[in-house]
Write the structure tokens for this entry.
Amino acid sequence: LFSGVEQAPPDAILGLTEQFKADTNPRKVNLGVGVYQDANGKLPLLRCVEAAEQRMVATPTAKGYQAIDGLPTYDTEVKELVFGAGSPLLAAGRVITAQALGGTGALKLGADLLRQVSPEAKVLISNPSWENHQALFTRAGFTVEKYRYYDAQTKGVDVDGMIADLRAAAPGTIVVLHACCHNPTGYDLAPADWQRVIDAVVDGHLTAFLDMAYQGFAQGIEEDGAVVRAFAERVGSFLVSTSFSKSFSLYGERVGALSVVCADAAEAARVLSQLKIVIRTNYSNPPTHGAAIVETVLGDPELRAQWVEELGQMRDRIKQMRTALVEGLVAAGVQGREYITDQVGMFSFSGLTKEQMQRLRSEYAVYGTDTGRICVAALNEGNIAYVSESIAAVLKD
Ligand code: PMP
């Protein structure tokens, strides 16, 4: 049966981690992963999460099945976080939200739903994009193409190129957009640029799919949510995937959600009925624990305030590390890297070539992806000088 099955290539990022683990250099630094680490290089357990879990342990519940679309109170909290508690769309019953297995699970639910609704549509993702976008939408049956995004010359977004590509797209084309903290580049659109994107989406009858994997990591929870609100004001139907992997440091719990904005409440009910079939035929219903943690935190004013504070600390530490990296590079003799502080989120497109990234790995045991992406959230006081000096060394010769 399986004799003809070919060996699939290893996952690029996980492969890098394997290589990192096997590296015996005591100074090794892993900047390849997409995981936030604290000032001590540790994956944090947020205090709000710990407190929520303690409450849950104190009041144990039986482990029944959840509803197909997940914990209802969780879905409501997510809606309010993403669209704003006072959103007229929520009041009109135009938004459906289903708990999903992380941001990836949310994207896959959305992809499967869209494939059913518009099987002929193409998908456009940014160039470059999170590598799983291409694979996930391809697996869902779509042809995936790219719109221009990163401009290596200006170290920013090629907004005109992006808009031109969106305007050239056929009606119904699905456009995957990073709502904030673009992965891998770290460059986001300015509010005025987002209006141009929305113009292109509305004029071209495109289907926008906002991937929100880092709400709160760019400017703040409300500020980052503004992109979704801007779409809500002007676009009739669109999708939003949410991930709490980073913002709650709940990676392995697989907590996310898919929200779908519909024309009216009746349409929303019909779409939800179809989405439930997608879920039911994949994994029947989602797990309880992670969503219960998030729901407990968001539903309790004290824990929520603690979360806002802890998320702010993660965001601020990343910003400090960006500044420290630029300063460390200057100290090591490398000028002109101020653009690193223009970027937001966990990642930085360092501007290094594939060869330089490979030398960083083989000669200095500093691991980033071949694209030049490094995880700023993995930098700390203990490794930043070494990383800066290593980057300076591969840039010099
Ligand atoms: N979208 C983007 C842009 C991401 O960077 C990630 C995580 N690396 C995801 C989605 C998936 O998030 P999750 O781990 O919650 O599945």
Remarks:
- The pocket of 4'-deoxy-4'-aminopyridoxal-5'-phosphate is lined by residues 34, 102-104, 130, 178, 183, 211, 213, 243, 245, 256 (CB under 6 Å).
- The chain is about 45% helix and 15% strand.
